[in-house]
User: Fold this.
Amino acid sequence: MIDKSGIGSLNKIEYRGRFAPSPTGPLHFGSLIAAIASYLEAKTNQGKWFLRIDDADYLREQKYASDSIKKALELHGFEWDKDIQYQSNSNVLYKRMRNHLIDNKKAFRCNCSRKILKNNQTGLNGIIYTGTCRKKHITNDYSIRVFVDQLKIKFNDEIQGSQSSQLDKDIGDFVIWRRDNIISYHLATIIDDNELGVTNIVRGNDLINSTFCQLYLQNLLNYKNPTYSHIPVVVDKNKQKLSKQFGAKEISNKLNTQNLVDGLLALKQTPPDDLASDSLENIWSWAIENWNSKTLEMTRSVKTPNL
Ligand code: GLU
Assistant:
């Protein structure tokens, strides 16, 4: 078929970004800046921005959290395309992809106990698995790991620069399906990103090493590799990453305009002094017009504002 819309439109791929919080607690400042950065990247590229609730791990889910995150995003003026996506709706697809990997001899069952695993060396993402169960025939109480070939994975992070890992030495065969019968974060993420046609992933730098596993899985499943930008993580005064696990404070919706301006400052933007007293609409207009992610280049962490 001939494309009549003109040269240039032939290869144009629409930008599709997303924000994918886990509902393990309310929105805190660290997740807010991931939301702001991914939103601004999508908007300045005339793209789409999706909201996906990563609730595949129902054991860690706090029941109130999805609604509280959604409300906080709404009250901060975020607008997402499509309906909210929930990973818990993807279970059938997850099982299909897991079985596909097993049937194609890309994955195997492992029943190593924690005690055995503890003796392994640690690498980029926890223990380095050295293939203990690769050739065993295990029938119960197992996790599923992917066979990791001897290879180097490289990618160019838009913010952190060029990254590489010798996957077999740094990570080893990693888990794609947990012993408690829950899909792993890596596999769930790439399946859902692919379903949504996500082209650009903007997220916290704490996940940069996960990208090696995710690129590897995308290649095994013949998915397209998105472009990655890992923004700095927010740390507290003890240099500890803000996380729900360590009880990071919920952002207050009453301070929505101030939170956005603090977020822009943490993302090394230069909002005018009085921007926080302006309307949400004007704050977003300013942010979209002036967004410059180059200021973040090679920055791994930033401090919580007002410390
Ligand atoms: N759901 C993950 C989290 O909240 C983020 C997933 C991702 O951006 O890949 O940490």
